[in-house]
Structures are given as C-alpha cells and as structure tokens.
Design goal:
It is built from twelve helices and ten strands. Helix 2 runs parallel beside helix 3, helix 4 packs across helix 11 and helix 6 crosses helix 8. It is globular and about 65 Å long. The protein starts with a strand and ends with a helix. The protein is α/β, with parallel strands linked by helices. Bound molecules: 5'-O-[(R)-(carboxyoxy)(hydroxy)phosphoryl]adenosine and zinc ion. 5'-O-[(R)-(carboxyoxy)(hydroxy)phosphoryl]adenosine (KG4) binds next to helix 5 and helix 6. 5'-O-[(R)-(carboxyoxy)(hydroxy)phosphoryl]adenosine binds next to helix 5 and helix 6.
Length: 345
C-alpha cells in the first residue's frame, strides 16, 4: 500500500510517498530556515505563505517517484503546529483526496515523529517507551501498539528544543540553535557552570524554562561584570543539565516498568550528547535503544506516511471536515490514544 503524505505544520514543506509504512519511495523537503533565520525564529505568516508557494512543486516532485494512480491514500499532518501552516497542507490534501476519490488520513504530528523510527528500524515494533523531543514537544510516551499511546510525562513549560533555541539566541547563535549548541558544546567543559536540573527526582514531567532563565541570568551577570563569556562552556554546561534530565527520567521509567526498548524521536533526538548518553545508560541497563538518522529526526513527511499507514490499517479515515488543529491534544484519551482523536474529528 502506498501513501502520499504531506507535512506543513511548521517551517518545512514536505511531501513523501511511503510503502507499507516502512519503505520511503519519495522524500521531498523544502526547508524555509534561510527565510526565518533573519528574524531569529519561525514567523508564522511567512511560513504559511511559503507553504502555499511550494506545496504544488513538492507534490509534483514526489510524484516523479510513483504515479498518482499507484497511490492508495492521502495523509496529512493536521496538528499540532502553526494554524496557517497546517491549513495549507490540510486544504491541499483534502483537495487531492476529493479530486482523486482516495481515502484521507489525518495524522498527529507527534505520532509521525515516533513513526520515523519504523522507516529505518524494520525490527522495531511496539510496545516501547518513546522520548519525543522537538521544538514544540517534550513527551515521554508509552507506545502500547502502533495506534495506542499513553503520555507518562511531559513538559510543564518550554519544550526542550525551544530551550535550545533560546539559549542559542542568548549566545548570539542563529536559528535553529539546537545543532549549533550541539557542535559548540563539544568544545566546552560541561562541568564548568552548574545550571539547575529542574524536577530531576520529581516524577516524569519536565521543566526547561528555569534552566533557560538561569543561562540568560548567567550570561547577563557575566556581561555586567565585564567578564568574557566562554560560549562553549555555557553550551556544554546547559546541554549536560538538559541531557542528564532527559536520560535520567527515561531510563528510570523504563526500569520501573520493566520496558526493554527505548526510542528517541523529534528534532532534539539528533543531539549527539543525548544519543550517546542514552546509549551508554541503555546498554548499562540491558535496554535496546533506537533513534532515527539525523534527517528523519527533524520534520519530514515520510514519518507522516508511516504513521498514516498504521492508522489506516487500524481503520482511521478522515473526511472533508478535517481541519487544522493547532493545539491537538496528545493523549487526551490515553486508553485509546490518537486513533480515538482521529475518529472524533
Ligand atoms: O522536530 P522538529 O524539526 O520540529 C518540531 O516539531 O518542533 O524539531 C526542531 C527542533 C529545533 O528546536 C532545533 O533547534 C532542535 O530540534 N534540534 C536540535 C538538534 N537538531 C535539531 N537540538 C539539539 N541538538 C541538535 N543536534
Ligand atoms: Zn516536529
């Protein structure tokens, strides 16, 4: 079964064709990063306009790899994300599904990030514990089946990627700051500055706004004292606090619940320190660890095509009332998960 999938929730116009949820036939990504960089972050109005400009060409390019007649269903991310950006993908997908009379499947963006792993790790199947870390999300999710999810922890304030981007800005690094902090941290001393590890031993929820402010206060304090700031040390110390928290809670939950497989997903899963720290902790505790290759960590449509396949075979169908849902709640119905959310639209 081949699914054509569309992803426009933030600043990537992405279209993919995915076979049976596991094989990427086409993966077109048109990134808007260069346009948003000059503003220090994603400008929603510009994002929507650029999606409109690019979506047609991206779909055409994907269809160079498989003809429209061989496509069995159309999938699209319908939330969470920027409403104007989501609307472009949703409207296009509805139009294409209507014109071709093919089934339409709305996909939850986080469900997509998790499914990115299925495209590369063909032995990976639920159940497993997934740490979803991106610019907009920080969730610890018990993935019970392909379509049944239980949120066991989430951020109470900033997403971890957001904290990375803000700290990068404080250090004068351009958006998106995560990869730049990652690289800079490799040259710094992670033990040079003690930043807080909020809620380290306090359940499975996260908080990253405190550490973000602590970095800002540290940098401003040093500037007032006319001290030179060692940006590499700040980056390394910030990253150590964040990675320690993420690793500690994920491993703790896995051990407490006898979970033998941990999966990382989302843009911050590209972080070298998170990958290596989680790898050594997982190995020490006899836990399998999976994460996508770098290009599948950040937003793409192949992950949407994979998630859509599992929703489709579980019976999920969207209709022409599918709408962009910027605050689509994750795990609002933990007993049945995203499938229930899809069916409610
Ligand atoms: O998944 P994604 O592309 O978009 C959302 O769904 O939010 O994630 C983007 C986020 C950005 O905050 C970016 O700075 C962060 O992922 N990121 C990283 C790295 N690569 C991307 N953060 C830390 N280390 C990285 N290597
Ligand atoms: Zn994302």
């Amino acid at each position: 079964m081949q699914i054509l999938a569309i992803e426009t929730s933030c600043d990537e116009t992405a279209v993919s064709i995915v076979k049976n949820g596991r094989e990427t036939i086409a993966n077109v990504i048109d990134s808007q990063i260069e346009k948003h960089k000059i503003f220090g972050g994603v400008v929603p109005e510009i994002a929507s306009r650029m999606h409109i400009e690019k979506i047609n060409a991206c779909v055409q390019e994907a269809l160079n790899h498989a003809s429209l007649e061989t496509i069995d269903a159309i999938a699209v991310t319908y939330g969470p994300g920027l409403v104007g950006a989501l609307l472009v993908g949703v409207a296009f997908a509805k139009g294409l599904a209507f014109a071709t009379q093919k089934p339409l499947v709305g996909v939850h963006h986080i469900e997509g990030h998790i499914a990115a792993n299925y495209l590369e790790h063909h032995d990976l199947k639920p159940p497993f514990l997934c740490l979803v870390v991106s610019g907009g999300h920080t969730h610890l999710i018990n993935v019970k089946t392909y379509t049944t999810f239980e949120i066991v922890g989430k951020t109470k304030d900033d997403a971890v990627g957001e904290a990375y981007d803000k700290v990068a800005r404080t250090l004068g690094l351009q958006y998106p700051g995560g990869p730049k902090i990652d690289r800079l941290a490799a040259t710094g001393d992670a033990d040079s500055i003690k930043f807080p590890k909020a809620m380290l031993n306090d359940g499975y929820d996260f908080s990253f706004s405190g550490i973000k402010s602590a970095v800002l206060n540290y940098v401003n304090g040093e500037k007032m004292k006319e001290h030179e700031i060692n940006a590499a040390n700040v980056a390394a110390s910030f990253q150590k606090s964040v990675v320690d928290i993420l690793t500690h809670k994920t491993i703790k939950y896995a051990i407490a619940n006898n979970i033998k497989t941990i999966v990382l997903a989302g843009g911050v899963a590209a972080n070298s320190s998170l990958r290596s720290n989680m790898r050594s902790q997982a190995t020490a505790n006899n836990i399998n660890l999976y994460y996508p290759s770098l290009s599948l960590c950040t937003d793409n449509a192949a992950m949407v095509g994979s998630a859509a396949y599992y929703s489709y075979i579980a019976g999920v169908r969207s209709n022409m009332s599918l709408n962009a849902t910027p605050n689509l709640v994750v795990g609002a119905k933990p007993a049945t998960g995203f499938a229930a959310l899809h069916n409610n639209i």
